[in-house]
Amino acid sequence: MSSEELHKRRSTAVARGVGSVIPAYVDHASGGTITDVEGREWIDFAAGIAVTNVGNSAPKVVEAVRAQVERFTHTCFMVAPYESYVAVCEQLNALTPGDFEKRSALFNSGAEAVENAVKIARHATGRPAVVVFDHAYHGRTNLTMALTAKNMPYKHRFGPFAGEIYRVPMSYPLRDGGLDGTTAAARAIELVEKQVGAENVAALLIEPIQGEGGFVVPAEGFLPALRQWATATGVVFIADEIQTGFCRTGDWFACQHEGVEPDLITLAKGIAGGLPLAAVTGRAELMDAVHIGGLGGTYGGNPIACAGALAAIETMHELDLAAAARRIESVMGDRLRDIAARDPRIAEVRGRGAMLAVEIVQPGTLTPDPAATAAVSAACHAAGLLTLTCGTYGNVLRFLPPLVISDDELARGLDILDAAFG
Ligand SMILES: *Cc1c(COP(=O)(O)O)cnc(C)c1O
């Protein structure tokens, strides 16, 4: 069946609210490419939104999942527990930043992990408020819509939203006049202290590099200053590393770049080679504050997803995918700066590791140009490169290749991108 025929079927079966970036339907995918039902191939600069860091159908993941499917598919960890859930938690406790006693709990999606991190922080502190940032993205459930900044398409007409969420300015060097990190943090902190009161704040929730909001990298010193304030005021510092985690930014987690140790970390996307799994990992005294039975969910830490996660993490170690991300940064970064040097629409090349982006504006201004961004992205799709856009203004073209992409695939993808800019 052709993609066109599948699209017709879809339009009478699948809810319109669920969109897709390309109109082609996937037949199979590998470490760096996606092939549709008609045999057309795309070089993958999306990785299913930073999920397939180890590639699609990574050999170890396939083997582990196959073996698990044959043993058992589901018992519910809250009913009859199993080893792989415990093993994933042990791995996350060891891998995440901070040399202190930790505990983890497993869930199904990033949004669910964020919801649970907020539940845990509120329960442990007995405080109601949550501080979030401009351009933040934390998910699409009711609480996480409230935590997310952007109205269209995430929140529009989906309210009313959960209360006690307070939004403060992010450090966004391109758009805040290059404010240094400590000054930008002081600006956010002052707002919280004057408008909310630190003693009412359960948690400060932040993406160390923003994902959907535009791959915004805060100025150096911003995260450490917020971390310091949270420590001084008893606020739980939650790092949402759902997009940045698992080697994506050239380290296991993006917080490590500035030596920041979160109290709680939310994880999903890259965790399990494409299987649906999410986690909250953090300080034992916070995690264990919650009464028995207070956390959980029917599918959370499903054994097949846990098998996938253990195999994916092993693959990340074995292939040193953090180093691979740094290699991608060096090759792709050079190429993006070359393009930016000749194209005045590119206001900035930014990001870290294999999480890079260009912000596109009207030349000579900071006025966002979402139309040009969409046009370049569409030209990439037509020429066989899968790219994504993001950003509050829809004017950021982002690149998230699988970390196992071959040098040849990476080079071919960058050639297509180069040509798409004209
Ligand atoms: C994708 C994402 C989420 C939501 O994850 P889902 O699995 O889609 O619910 C939350 N936070 C960040 C930073 C994300 O990138």
UniProtKB/TrEMBL annotation:
Cofactor(s) for this UniProt protein: pyridoxal 5'-phosphate
Keyword list, A-Z: Aminotransferase, Pyridoxal phosphate, Transferase
Reactions the enzyme catalyzes: 4-aminobutanoate + 2-oxoglutarate = succinate semialdehyde + L-glutamate; (S)-3-amino-2-methylpropanoate + 2-oxoglutarate = 2-methyl-3-oxopropanoate + L-glutamate
InterPro entries, alphabetized: 4NH2But_aminotransferase_bac (IPR004632), Aminotrans_3 (IPR005814), Aminotrans_3_PPA_site (IPR049704), Class-III_PLP-dep_AT (IPR050103), PyrdxlP-dep_Trfase (IPR015424), PyrdxlP-dep_Trfase_major (IPR015421), PyrdxlP-dep_Trfase_small (IPR015422)
Enzyme's top EC category: transferase
Protein EC: 2.6.1.19, 2.6.1.22
Pathway this chain belongs to: Amino-acid degradation; 4-aminobutanoate degradation
Record GO terms (molecular function): (S)-3-amino-2-methylpropionate transaminase activity; 4-aminobutyrate:2-oxoglutarate transaminase activity; identical protein binding; pyridoxal phosphate binding
UniProt family annotation: Belongs to the class-III pyridoxal-phosphate-dependent aminotransferase family.
PANTHER family referenced in this protein's UniProt entry, alphabetically: AMINOTRANSFERASE CLASS III (PTHR11986), LEUCINE_METHIONINE RACEMASE (PTHR11986:SF58)
Protein name in the entry: (S)-3-amino-2-methylpropionate transaminase
Gene that produces this protein: gabT
